[in-house]
């Protein structure tokens, strides 16, 4: 009897479209190796999408991806039902009507998908997500999400919300569940800030590196978000909450390159803001070098709280040896005392992140159960 | 004694603390010697919660027609009764009524009903007894006595209809904003509050997306010449008056810039080019009370053409369903929908008499490298459909180009 997995796909951006591609390309492999067929029954963009209980064909999937890539309209495929919101979609999906598990995949960056995830879990629909926003929302909302999983039979998998494809959360859970005590977690969790720190270490100016990062599309539309450290802070918050620290995002100590502001972004103002930092940073870095230290954008998490920001760390340390946008997480625990547990590798990128989501998906399909 | 109708929205009556606050406001009007009728919306998120509850049982609860309306109407009834209690606690004599008890008669189109009549007697009777009457907004009953609801903005419509039927001196609509602005202050920090608008201007601003009050409410007020005051629930500051213009000519070419991001563009591609095809799509849409806008038909190729239009996001599903059904017999017709679109509009009584405005608007977009995908115009507005992520930029550029931040001075002179 072939196994079936039905997927409600939210988000057809970088990670989402790569995931769809990976699944389409490996359909035969999954079938032969595991006897598994994956069917996409809903394709949702941020503001709407289409649903068909029988699933969409490969050609229809590719048309949807192409339309999204070109920012073109959604085609209402024959016999498909238009959907405007995730909640609306869930009204139509009844797990008892399908043979095989259903998983909602969230590859968006939208905080409001957290409520959709809660509703899905309550309907016994698994949730596999790369979207860190719902996990970094208010503690109350976060708890509602976790409770929705704990109270039902569906699973909530979010390995890729920290460190992309790296197995960070499952390693952390492994420590916690076996009774180890976490003393401190340190890590570089932001690729953009890692790229900036490497540039600074090489003696380049902050303004110059930031411009390059912007041109290469490494930064968000408002680069102050990256430089203030919000991305790293959200990931640190998820780590903290995973070890049971009750913390809000605004309680994290932020020591980024720029303060976090709510004023509208102006490219011109931003450039002069960054240029004003060039000299001071260059001096700090020269000074640090003489002491054998290098700039790194470090998140620190322990039971007391959490901080994120620019720090000067020993060059000859796991974090000091890190280069470029790579991520690293260093777990110092009661058992990993002298030699901490280190996980390092690419922390972003659509291929590895999508593969991480896919691994979680195979896990909810019952293919393997190591998390 | 003049009658004043006041309307308070869901966020104004969300908690007992809010209700007490509002009760003091109402008491103040009463002590000033007015007869007061208060219309309330459902508290906070009540309506959303009721919809979610219904969706657990039926994926499309609106299909249940009168039952859906009967469910939603409870939100306002609850708020009305609580409001009455808050007023009694203030030492006033108060009575709450649901829409039907208040005499609001509607047609039978559930969840989008229109008011067909209003029997003022039961409210008048209670006012004569010195009571403050609290009416549950958003609802009425059809000729069979079934509960109906009026759709989005329904409580404002109730308030305007009561004000009209009771010959009120004015209709006060209390909001969590101070009134109409030249642009949404969240998008344009230097936006100026508008002291006064004509009915036509306010109606146009409201219908292109300024979420202050519902165009249907303004339309009723216009027909019965009832002035509307938009006021802030927790502030004494002066808001916006909506009334007849006292000016002979329009001083302001443009009063405001609005972006409506809650729209969806629907395109029907490859429609056979023959008489009656447009009606084939738009008659069913009209029957479902779905308002369409910016209808565009392109030049046909090989006997087939494309039709595009926009609808409100809340209507999009139903609209697409209607289009899907209408297209089924036509063969190879493709239907597309685009939710990543926004409508940016400029509104002002003087647009018709200022020929240069349209050109300036388009030039302003071109300077900002904003592509215009659709255009529609009326006497007093010009709307352009653009990509949603460029909408805020478009609003700021237009606000700046037309110098709307200086309206405050002109408006207070007028």
Care to describe what's here?
The complex is a heterodimer of chains A (371) and B (414). Chain A is an alpha/beta fold and 371 residues long. Chain A has 12 helices and 14 strands. In chain A, helix 1 (14-34) packs across helix 12 (350-364). The longest helix of chain A has 24 residues, at 267-290. The mean pLDDT of chain A is 93. Chain B has 414 residues and is α/β, with parallel strands linked by helices. Helices cover 36% and strands 25% of the residues of chain B. Chain B has 12 helices and 20 strands. An 8-stranded mixed sheet of chain B has the order 3-6-2-1-9-11-12-10, with helices on both faces. Chain B has a 4-stranded antiparallel sheet with strand order 13-18-20-19, with helices on both faces. A 4-stranded antiparallel sheet of chain B has the order 15-16-14-17, covered by helices on one side. In chain B, helix 1 (16-31) crosses helix 3, helix 2 (46-57) packs antiparallel against helix 3 (66-89) and helix 5 runs parallel beside helix 7 (215-224). Chain B is globular, with a radius of gyration of 22 Å. The model of chain B is unreliable at 409-414 (pLDDT under 50). The A-B interface holds A 45-48, 71-76, 81-84, 87-88, 91-92, 264 and B 52, 55, 58-60, 189, 264-265, 267, 313, 316-317, 320-321, 324, 334-340, 387-388. Strand 4 of chain A pairs antiparallel with strand 17 of chain B, so a sheet runs across the interface.
What gap, in angstroms, lies between the N and C termini of chain B? 30 Å
Rg of Cα set of chain A: 22 Å
What fraction of residues of chain B sit in β-strands?
Answer: 15-25%
Low-confidence region ranges of chain A: none
Please give the domain count of chain A. Answer: 2
User: What multimeric state do the chains show?
Assistant: heterodimer
Fill in the CATH topology of the largest domain in chain A. Dihydrodipicolinate Reductase, domain 2
Order of helices and strands of chain A: EHEEHEEHEHEHEHEHHHHEHEEEEH
The spatial strand order of the largest sheet of chain A comes to 5-3-2-1-6-7-8
Major sheet of chain B, described briefly? 8 strands, mixed
**Reported CATH architecture of the largest domain in chain A:** 2-Layer Sandwich
């Amino acid at each position: 009897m072939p196994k079936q997995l039905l997927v409600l796909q939210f988000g057809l951006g970088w990670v989402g479209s790569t995931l769809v591609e990976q699944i389409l390309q490996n359909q035969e492999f999954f079938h032969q190796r595991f006897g598994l067929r994956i069917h996409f029954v809903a394709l949702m963009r941020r503001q709407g999408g289409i649903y068909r209980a029988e699933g969409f064909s490969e050609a229809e999937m590719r048309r949807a991806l192409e339309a999204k890539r070109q920012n073109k309209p959604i085609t209402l495929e024959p016999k498909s039902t238009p959907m405007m919101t995730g909640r609306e979609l869930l009204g139509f999906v009844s797990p008892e009507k399908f043979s095989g598990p259903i998983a909602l995949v969230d590859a968006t960056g939208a905080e409001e998908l957290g409520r959709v995830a809660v509703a899905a879990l309550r309907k016994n629909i698994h949730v596999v997500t790369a979207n860190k926003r719902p996990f970094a929302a208010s503690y109350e909302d976060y708890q509602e999400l976790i409770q929705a999983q704990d109270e039902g039979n569906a699973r909530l998998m979010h390995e890729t919300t920290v460190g992309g494809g790296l197995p960070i959360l499952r390693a952390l859970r492994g420590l916690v569940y076996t009774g180890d005590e976490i003393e401190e977690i340190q890590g570089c969790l932001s690729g953009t800030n890692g790229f900036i720190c490497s540039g600074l270490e090489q003696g380049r100016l902050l303004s110059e590196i930031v411009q390059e990062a912007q041109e290469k599309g490494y930064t968000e539309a408002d680069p102050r978000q990256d430089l203030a450290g919000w991305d790293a802070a959200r990931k640190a918050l998820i780590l903290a909450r995973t070890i049971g620290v009750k913390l809000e995002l605004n309680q994290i100590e932020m020591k980024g390159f720029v303060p976090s502001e709510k004023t509208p972004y102006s490219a011109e103002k931003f450039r002069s803001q960054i240029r004003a930092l060039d000299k001071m940073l260059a001096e700090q870095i020269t000074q640090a070098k003489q002491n054998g230290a290098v700039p790194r954008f470090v998140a620190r998490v322990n039971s007391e709280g959490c901080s994120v920001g620019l720090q000067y760390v020993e060059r000859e340390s796991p974090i000091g040896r890190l280069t470029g946008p790579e991520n690293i997480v260093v777990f110092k625990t009661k058992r990993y005392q002298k030699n901490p547990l280190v996980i390092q590798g690419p922390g972003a990128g659509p291929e590895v992140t999508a593969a991480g989501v896919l691994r979680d998906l195979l896990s909810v399909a019952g293919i393997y159960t190591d998390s | 004694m003049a009658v004043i109708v006041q309307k308070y929205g869901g966020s104004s009556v969300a908690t007992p603390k809010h209700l007490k606050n509002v009760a003091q406001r109402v008491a103040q009007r009463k002590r000033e010697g007015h007869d007061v009728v208060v219309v309330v919306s459902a508290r906070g998120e009540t309506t959303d919660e009721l919809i979610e509850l219904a969706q657990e049982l039926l994926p499309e609860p609106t299909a249940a027609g009168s039952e859906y309306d009967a469910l939603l109407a409870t939100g306002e009834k609850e708020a009305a009764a609580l409001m009455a209690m808050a007023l009694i606690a203030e030492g006033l004599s108060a009575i709450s009524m649901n829409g039907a008890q208040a005499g609001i008669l509607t047609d039978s189109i559930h969840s989008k009903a229109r008011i067909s009549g209003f029997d003022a007697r039961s409210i008048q009777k209670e006012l004569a007894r010195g009571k403050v009457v609290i009416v549950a907004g958003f609802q009425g009953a059809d000729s069979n006595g079934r509960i109906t609801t009026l759709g989005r903005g329904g409580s404002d419509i109730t308030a305007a209809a009561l004000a009209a039927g009771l010959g009120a001196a004015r209709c006060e609509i209390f909001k969590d904003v101070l009134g109409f602005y030249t642009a949404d202050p969240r998008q344009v920090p230097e936006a100026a509050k508008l002291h006064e608008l004509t009915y036509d201007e306010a109606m146009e601003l409201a219908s292109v997306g300024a979420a202050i009050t519902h165009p249907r409410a303004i339309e009723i007020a216009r027909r019965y010449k009832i002035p509307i005051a938009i006021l802030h629930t927790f502030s004494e500051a002066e808001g916006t008056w909506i009334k007849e213009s006292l000016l002979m000519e329009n001083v302001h070419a443009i009063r405001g810039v609005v972006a409506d991001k809650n729209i969806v563009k629907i395109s029907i591609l490859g429609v056979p080019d023959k008489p009656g095809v447009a009606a084939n799509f738009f008659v069913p849409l009209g029957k479902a009370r779905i308002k369409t806008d910016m209808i565009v038909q392109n030049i046909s190729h090989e006997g087939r053409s494309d039709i595009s239009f926009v609808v409100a996001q809340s209507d999009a599903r139903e609209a697409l369903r209607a289009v899907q059904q209408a297209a089924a017999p036509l063969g190879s017709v493709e239907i597309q929908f685009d939710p990543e679109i926004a409508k940016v509009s400029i509104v002002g009584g003087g647009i018709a008499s200022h020929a240069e405005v349209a050109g300036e608007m388009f030039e302003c977009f071109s300077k900002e490298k904003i592509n215009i995908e659709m255009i529609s115009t009326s006497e007093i507005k010009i709307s352009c459909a653009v990509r949603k992520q460029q909408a805020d930029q478009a609003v700021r550029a237009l606000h700046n180009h037309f110098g709307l931040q200086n309206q405050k001075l002109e408006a207070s002179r007028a």
